[in-house]
Every structure is written in structure tokens, then in C-alpha cells.
Amino acid sequence: MARTVTTQRKVIVTAIAWTIAIAIFFPILWTFLTSFKTEADAIATPPKFLFFNWTTENYTTVQGRSNYFLHFWNSVIISVGSTVAALIIAIPAAWSMAFVPGKRTKDILMWMLSTKMMPAVGVLVPIYLLFRDTGLLDTRTGLVIVLTLMNLPIVVWMLYTYFKEIPGEILEAARMDGANLTREIIYVLTPMAVPGIASTLLLNIILAWNEAFWTLNLTASKSAPLTQFIASYSSPEGLFYAKLSAASMMAIAPIIVLGWFSQKQLVRGLTFGAVK
Amino acid sequence: MGQIELKGVTKRFGDVEVIPPLDLQINEGEFVVFVGPSGCGKSTLLRLIAGLEDTTGGRIEIDGKDATDLRPAQRRLAMVFQSYALYPHMSVRKNIAFPLKMAKLSQAEIDKKVEGAAKVLNLSSYLDRRPGQLSGGQRQRVAIGRAIVREPAAFLFDEPLSNLDAALRVNMRLEISELHNSLKTTMIYVTHDQVEAMTMADKIVVLQAGRIEQVGTPLELYRTPKNRFVAGFIGSPKMNFIGGTEAQKHGAHEIGIRPEHITVGTSGDWQGRVTVSEHLGSDTYLHVQTDHGIINVRSAGNVDVHHGDTVWLTPETANIHKFDANGSAV
């Protein structure tokens, strides 16, 4: 007998799904709304939800007070730079682990991932001192280096999983056909792994864009990305919720736009190989 | 061109010796089939010749030159894989052109050769499709096309027909044989299917546990198998083996008789009861329970015998194979 799904049941399930979705999304929605309030409305009790004086003054104030575009460019350079650097290191690394595994390949992969299990603050002091002594503090180069290294394990792992899905016989065919290692990677492996590489790239850009611990601790002003821009509104000036919200919205807008346009690619990449 | 010689070739994976020292001579223009049960090392042997695996010991010579340490591409061999191994992101044209592009031929030359190969393989109308849009047989033809454009010294086939359905397999088998007749290039073909081996080969190499059991023409292997393994592996349905007193009568530890060398009648040497009868029209296959165990019989034409009938079987004395206690032919 076929299972019957009643309309009532559908309505209930849909309502539950929407409630959960809105609950999860609520903080972002509230930040968005607050960014258009006056400071008085922002802290009003009871809170004003939609009926307040809509204003864009926070955005103009924030832009006037700090240099948004400097931070924006720093974010772009740091996230894209660290992602590209990580890919350049990780593609050959993942290739060798996926196609010429040794006895210890699994151990190496686990060891690499285990570095992510340690709290970042555990290595803050040595890295800070290293950066101070090498003049890398508050430089984009320094942040690119540290974020590349921080995300490298995840990038290698993701690429390794995607490469594992590619049949080794195809690479062997390329070898028989006269391709050397470089050509094999450029003409055969990379085009076949494009969905995987693209989603790794996007995910890593997002991770690097939102990374706050290292960007806050290793920068002051010159090379500070948007995380620093948000943070600068949180404490020293007291409770300016509306301006803080406006700064947050300005900081996350570019990455939301990127995520929105690339969501198809992201989902395709993340489920790569799951459905053939 | 296309003479391949293996001298004491050995392969180990860690402590496991997959191929003990092995010698083999493959002559120019020969169609050689490596056959054996799964895990017998036939694919490994092919991969050693291709250069996709490194040898642990011994020498591989191609056209008299040492090729043991050459990279796969430098050996001038082309390989057709079981999974076809086509480049899924390239059109059929680009797939076939890939080895030529790697060899840095001019675009005009590449186009000419690709068109030529496509014509031979009936692929001309599919050149702009992706492999994913082709049927299994067409994909296999593209893989063959990619191999022939290189004009290699020899072709290596690694179970190329196992992924095809039965009807297509027979067709492709003929196509590959025809290709060999027209190109006259050395071909080494790996299969576990002894029918493919028997129908295509000039020379069959029967392998077991990495060792060569026997090398010979299909009919040599069929008529004079060197040992019990080859006798049982070559021929379909399989040879019947009988031990005990019946074998001693023929002065052997064990005797073997092929199903087609037994006649069915109302009187004869061995009495038995038919357990299964298969009527194919052209042939009749009988499984007969006798005092010597189940005996398979193959009779030409239709034999009017059915399940439960009692029959008498008589082996053709001239076609009885005798084996000693070690399984070697006497």
C-alpha cells in the first residue's frame, strides 16, 4: 500500500522547518535590521522589530570614520592569496597521496588534520614572536602565510577525497599516451577535478575571509582585514549597536554575494562522487 | 618492429612474490593472449611490460633494446584498458588526438590521423561527442582509436571486453582480430576468458600464481596440455577428471577426458543417470552421475536424453589425457 502524506502533515512539517530555519537565521536578520536603526532604536525596550525610523546614516558614518575599502582589499588579498597558495601546495600533495600512496599516507593525513584539533591560542605566543622578529606583524604577507598554513590540512583533505574518486586508469592512460607528470596534472587530473577544486577554493576563501583569531591578533591597522574593521566598533567606543551592525553587514556582504553566486558549484563540489 | 622479450622478470609487492622469475619471447606481429584465473598475475605482467609497474628484477627488451627503466611513454606501446579510461572531459576527437598532441605533432597531421582512425573504427559521426554520450562498444572503439593513431610497436589490451554484454563482446572480438590482420602489429591481450583466448590468439600463455604453465598455439594447448591445470583451464565445458582404479587401468594417477570426446549410448564403459540435460539445438550438454562422480558430456546435435534417464558413456581412448601424481601430463 502506498504511503499517504496528508496535507495536514505537510503543513506541520513545513512549519517546523521554517521555524528552525528562521531561528538559525534570526541573528543575521536582527543585525541587518539593527544596521538601519538609530542608536536609540537599536537598544529600545521592548525591541522594535520592523516599525522604526529606517535610516542609512550608520553606513555613511561607518564609511566616513574608517576606511572600508582598505579593509576590503586586505580581506580580498588575504583570503584569495592564502587560498591560491594553499592550492598550489595541496594539489601535488593530494595527487601523490591519492595516486601513489605509501605505507604511512593515512597516518600523514591524520597527523595533518590533528594540527587543526589544537586550539589556535596554543601557538599564538610563538607565532607572534616569530612574526615580530621577522617583521611580519601587521603585513598582508604575514597573514597570507599564516592563513595558508592554517587551512592547508583541510585543503589537502578535501582535494585528496576528490582525487580518490578519479579512476587511476585514466591517469595511467595519460602516461601511456606520452604525458609527463606536469602534463598529466594539467591536462587530465585538474580538468577532471574542477568541481572539487572549485568548491575547495570557494570554501577556503570563505573560511579565510571570516577568520578572526589570527587576523585580529597579528594585525593593527595597515593590513587589517574586515574582521578588524568590525571589531573596531565593538569595544572602545561603548555600545554602538547600530554602527556595529552596519559594519558587520558591510563586512559580510561581499562573501554572501560570492556564496550566493557560487552555491551551485559549492553544492556540486561538496557532493562530488556521492551520486554518480 | 614489436618484438618483446622478458628475461627473468620478477615482481614483488612487499614480501609477496607476484611474479617469480619469468622468461617469455613475443615475436613481431604475433597476437599473444595471457590467460589464467583471477589473481594469476596476468594483468601485473602486462603492466610490467607497459611500464606502469616497476620490475623487481630481470630485464624487459623491446625490439632488442633494454626498456626495463624506460617510462611508459618511451616504450612506444599503446594500451587499451578494461574501463576504457577515456578522458571524460574531452570530446572523442580530443581523446583520440591526445597522444598525438603529447607527441607535439602539427594540427594538420593530428586532424588527418584522427579522421583516418575514426573512419576505420566507424566513429566519424561521433567525433564531437563526449565519452559519456557513447555506448560501451563505442567507448571501447574510441579507446582502440586512441591506441592506433600512435602507430605503436605493440598494443596491450587489459581485459578490454569484460565490461561489454555478450553479443557485443563477440562483435568486438571479431573487430580486434580483423584489426590485427590489417595492422599486423604485435598485440598482447589479457583475459580470463579462455574462449577469447582460443578464438583470437596466435599464441596463448597460460598463467597460474605468476608462473607460466604452458605456452603454445590454441590447438596445442587443447590437444596436448602439459599438466592438469592447463587441461582443466582450456576447453569449454571443462575436462572431466577421473582418479582411482579407472585411472590405474590406463597406467596413470588421474585421467582427463573432454566432454566432446565421450559418446552416449545404450551400452558402454560407464553407466550413469542424467541429472541435467541442456538442449541447445546445435549441441546437447549432459551432466551424468556415475560411479566416478559427475561426468559432463557434450554431443553434437540433439540427443534425445532427459533428466533421470540411465545412459552409458564411452570415452574415446585416443583422446584420454593421463596425469601423474604431480598433475603433469604423462
Give a quick summary of the entry.
The complex is a heterodimer of chains A (276) and B (330). Chain A has 276 residues and is mainly α.
Give your account of this protein's structure.
The complex is a heterodimer of chains A (276) and B (330). Chain A is mainly alpha-helical and 276 residues long. Chain A folds into 2 domains: 7-59, no CATH class; 67-270, MetI-like fold. Chain A is 72% helix and 0% strand. Chain A has 13 helices and no strands. Chain A has helices at 7-34, 39-42, 57-65, 68-99, 105-114, 124-134, 140-164, 168-176, 181-192, 194-210, 213-218, 226-231, 241-270. The longest helix of chain A has 32 residues, at 68-99. Chain A is globular, with a radius of gyration of 23 Å. Chain A starts with 6 loop residues before the first helix and ends in a 6-residue tail after the last helix. With 330 residues, chain B is of the alpha+beta class. Chain B folds into 2 domains: 4-231, P-loop containing nucleotide triphosphate hydrolases (Rossmann fold), CATH 3.40.50.300; 238-323, Beta Barrel (OB fold (Dihydrolipoamide Acetyltransferase, E2P)), CATH 2.40.50.140. In chain B, 27% of the residues lie in helices and 32% in strands. Chain B has 9 helices and 18 strands. Chain B has helices spanning 42-50, 92-102, 107-120, 136-148, 166-183, 194-200, 218-223, 228-233, 244-249, and strands spanning 4-13, 16-26, 31-35, 57-62, 65-66, 77-80, 154-158, 186-191, 203-208, 211-216, 240-242, 254-257, 262-265, 270-279, 283-290, 293-300, 310-315, 321-323. A 6-stranded mixed beta sheet of chain B has the order 6-7-8-3-9-10, sandwiched between helices. A 5-stranded antiparallel beta sheet of chain B has the order 13-17-14-15-16, with no helix packed on it. In chain B, strands 2-1-4-5 form a 4-stranded antiparallel beta sheet, with helices on one face. In chain B, helix 2 packs across helix 3 (107-120) and helix 2 packs parallel to helix 4. The radius of gyration of chain B is 23 Å and the shape is globular. Chains A and B meet through helix 8 and helix 9 of A and strand 6 and helix 2 of B.
